[in-house]
């Protein structure tokens, strides 16, 4: 694989993700993750939830850090 090729992060590889306002609207799996081997994309209302939100499919915990 060349340096120009970048593989997407495996979906749901971690249980805690830090996101920034520039990443909103927030979805799980994140856009940089491979969707084909994960659950359907779901949008999470992190701003309405006090800056933290959990994915109802995989349980990943997202924290808004800025």
TrEMBL record:
Q: Which domain of life is it from?
A: Bacteria
UniProt keyword list? Metal-binding, Zinc, Zinc-finger
Q: Domain Zinc finger CHCC-type, which positions?
A: 38-62
Please name the GO terms that the record assigns under molecular function.
Answer: zinc ion binding
What name appears for this protein in its UniProt entry? Zinc-finger domain-containing protein
């Amino acid at each position: 694989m060349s340096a120009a090729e970048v593989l997407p992060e495996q979906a749901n590889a971690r249980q805690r993700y830090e996101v920034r306002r520039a990443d909103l609207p927030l979805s799980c799996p994140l856009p940089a993750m491979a969707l084909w081997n994960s659950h359907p994309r779901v949008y999470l209302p992190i701003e309405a939830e006090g800056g933290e939100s959990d994915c109802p499919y995989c349980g990943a915990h997202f924290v808004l850090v800025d």
